[in-house]
Amino acid sequence: MPAAYEQYLVPAVFRPFAEDLAARAAVLHPGRVLELASGTGVLTSHLLTAAPSAEVTATDLNEAMVAFGATRAPGAVWRQADAQRLPFPDGGFDLVVCQFGVMFFPDRIEAFTEVHRVLAPGGRFLFNTWGPLGTHAFEAALQAGLERALPVDPPRFFPTVPHGYADPAVVAADLTAAGFAVEDEQELTLQGRAASTADLATGYLTGTPVRVAVEERGDGPAVRATVIEEMTARLGPGPVTAPMTAYVFHAAA
Ligand SMILES: C[S@@+](CC[C@H](N)C(=O)[O-])C[C@H]1O[C@@H](n2cnc3c(N)ncnc32)[C@H](O)[C@@H]1O
Question: Do 128 and 104 meet the contact criterion of CB atoms below 8 Å apart?
């Protein structure tokens, strides 16, 4: 999964937001930085470039992501960690960053409370979340393709997980419940770019948990063909460009 995620989804979907988040982090001139849900390390490598004096500790729940990320961004210290049970002492970081990870945490208040614990007083928490599915043209087209290919029981991963925490008021309330002061929340729309809808379909169908959901339902090649057809009908043939909307949060411990 990490290799397909890195090859097909990182350049098309995640890199533009990593550039944005790394630039916001660099403005804070952080010393000790903890990254959560680092995946294959796209934000990690941009952070190391944008804030070269920072000491970056990159973590992820998934050991395969940690192993992949450690080769991609070796300037960080990599460690397996669940955001809800961080293996770090109190107050050891100046900044915690997380790109498109908080939606995956089963209990956000518990995870945010852990982030608050490991931050020094006045430390910052900087992260982004996706907006509703309809504001992400690639993933809305993917979901439409899955619903056409598997009408009886389509995988619901994209509406319920990546796009299932898309109300900024709820995110802000969870931050406040964990002891943070919300300093800023911005809506940000960037353009996704991919060589083709076939590349996007390969990324989403092999580099995300949708892979297992499609395997369980059988006939992967037919699902892939229908998904590509629907995505091409919606996004066009050849190289594709489409808007993707996220929210960016700055909070202070
Ligand atoms: C959409 S990926 C984002 C990865 C990376 N930040 C990026 O921008 O490419 C979500 C990541 O969250 C990780 N994750 C899921 N649950 C987690 C948890 N409880 N604690 C830490 N990481 C988690 C997954 O393993 C996955 O790598």
Answer: no
At 9, list the tokens. Answer: 């989804």
* CB 14 less than 6 A from any atom of ligand 1: yes
Residue ranges with strand state E in the chain:
32-36, 55-60, 77-80, 93-99, 119-130, 181-194, 240-252
Using DSSP, state whether 233 is helix, strand or coil: helix
Residue 233 CA to ligand 1 centre (angstroms)? 30
| DSSP character string of 86-152 | --S-TT-EEEEEEES-GGG-S-HHHHHHHHHHHEEEEEEEEEEEE--GGGBHHHHHHHHHHHHHSSS
CB of residue 42 inside a 6 A radius of ligand 1: yes
**Interval between CA 36 and ligand 1 midpoint (Å):** 7
103 lines ligand 1 (CB under 6 A): no
Q: How far apart are the CA of 207 and the centre of ligand 1, in A?
A: 12
Cβ neighbours around 59 below 10 Å, total: 26
Distance of CA 59 from the midpoint of ligand 1 (Å) = 9
pLDDT one digit per residue (tens) for the chain, 253 residues: 899 999 999 999 999 999 999 999 999 999 999 999 999 999 999 999 999 999 999 999 999 999 999 999 999 999 999 999 999 999 999 999 999 999 999 999 999 999 999 999 999 999 999 999 999 999 999 999 999 999 999 999 999 999 999 999 999 999 999 999 999 999 999 999 999 999 999 999 999 999 999 999 989 999 999 999 999 999 999 999 999 999 999 999 9
Residue nearest atom 13 of ligand 1, based on CA coordinates: 37
